[in-house]
């Protein structure tokens, strides 16, 4: 990674609305070098093509096990000279070997205020718990699923009439604001994974990462 250029490879499985947000926000030093999907029908591939970004499909069903799929994925990522690997709705569990290879340059976005609600169905779980706030988190990926150090969070108020769908829509809007900020901070060399956790501008971040009040306000309006 040079100060002027950070090659980002985005991994997707589906709709790719976070990918679109990253594409729309990608100005130097952020450069989206390629988008890789594990499903040929992932709509995000079309978004990448429309933006003139290289695409590749690596279908997990054509690999005998996770190790061989992840090895093919790593080869494709490395062929792009990736400085940063961004998971954007990538619905495969990655092997420890893969995660270790990209340690400190592998980010994920998760639709909850981590450490709450790792895994699936986060919006319904927040509603069932009667939470006043829900949201999304960007974190460095480690071997623990959705358990790596949090970088940034955006909080979204839960409204009395919310369903899982309405809440998901507002959290998604917050994700689209949050993820490009995290990618830019990394590309600018301001965000890194230190020995004790995520660091921003050389300072350790708290366990719930940094929150961006302006993002919270914008998300709650949508
Ligand atoms: C997002 O909700 C993200 O938090 C989760 O997967 C979803 C991807 O949505 N990891 P999209 O494909 O970016 O629209």
UniProtKB/TrEMBL annotation:
Q: Which GO terms describe its molecular function?
A: phosphoribosylglycinamide formyltransferase activity
| Site residues, Raises pKa of active site His | 146
Positions bound to (6R)-10-formyltetrahydrofolate:
66, 91-94, 108
Q: Biological process GO annotation list? A: 'de novo' IMP biosynthetic process
List the catalytic activities from the record.
N(1)-(5-phospho-beta-D-ribosyl)glycinamide + (6R)-10-formyltetrahydrofolate = N(2)-formyl-N(1)-(5-phospho-beta-D-ribosyl)glycinamide + (6S)-5,6,7,8-tetrahydrofolate + H(+)
Q: Which Gene3D superfamilies match?
A: Formyl transferase, N-terminal domain
Q: Which PROSITE patterns match?
A: GART
Tell me the superkingdom of the source.
Bacteria
Q: Transmembrane residues, as ranges?
A: none
Q: In which pathway does it act?
A: Purine metabolism; IMP biosynthesis via de novo pathway; N(2)-formyl-N(1)-(5-phospho-D-ribosyl)glycinamide from N(1)-(5-phospho-D-ribosyl)glycinamide (10-formyl THF route): step 1/1
Q: Domain Formyl transferase N-terminal, which positions?
A: 8-182
Swiss-Prot/TrEMBL keywords = Purine biosynthesis, Transferase
Report the EC code(s) recorded for this entry: 2.1.2.2
Q: Which family does it belong to?
A: Belongs to the GART family.
Q: Which NCBIfam families match?
A: PurN
The UniProt function text for this chain reads: Catalyzes the transfer of a formyl group from 10-formyltetrahydrofolate to 5-phospho-ribosyl-glycinamide (GAR), producing 5-phospho-ribosyl-N-formylglycinamide (FGAR) and tetrahydrofolate.
Protein name stated in the entry: Phosphoribosylglycinamide formyltransferase
Q: Organism source for this protein? A: Pseudomonas oryzihabitans
């Amino acid at each position: 990674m040079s100060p002027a250029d950070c090659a980002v490879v985005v991994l997707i499985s589906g709709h790719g609305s976070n990918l679109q947000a990253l594409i729309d926000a990608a100005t130097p030093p952020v450069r989206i070098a390629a988008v890789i999907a594990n499903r040929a029908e992932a709509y995000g591939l079309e978004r990448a093509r429309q933006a003139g970004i290289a695409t590749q499909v690596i279908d997990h069903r054509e690999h005998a096990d996770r190790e061989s799929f992840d090895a093919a994925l790593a080869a494709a990522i490395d062929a792009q000279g990736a400085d940063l690997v961004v998971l954007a709705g990538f619905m495969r569990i990655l092997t420890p070997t893969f995660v270790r290879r990209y340690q400190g340059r592998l980010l994920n976005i998760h639709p909850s205020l981590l450490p709450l609600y790792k895994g699936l169905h986060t919006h319904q779980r927040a509603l069932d718990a009667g939470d006043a706030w829900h949201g999304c988190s960007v974190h460095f990926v480690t071997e623990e699923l959705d358990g790596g150090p949090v970088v940034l969070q955006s909080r979204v108020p839960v409204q009395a009439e919310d369903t899982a769908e309405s809440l998901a829509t507002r959290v998604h809007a917050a994700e689209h604001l949050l993820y490009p900020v995290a990618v830019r901070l990394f590309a600018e060399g301001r965000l890194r994974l230190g020995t004790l956790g995520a660091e921003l501008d050389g300072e350790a971040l708290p366990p719930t990462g940094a929150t961006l009040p302006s993002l919270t306000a914008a998300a709650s309006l949508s």
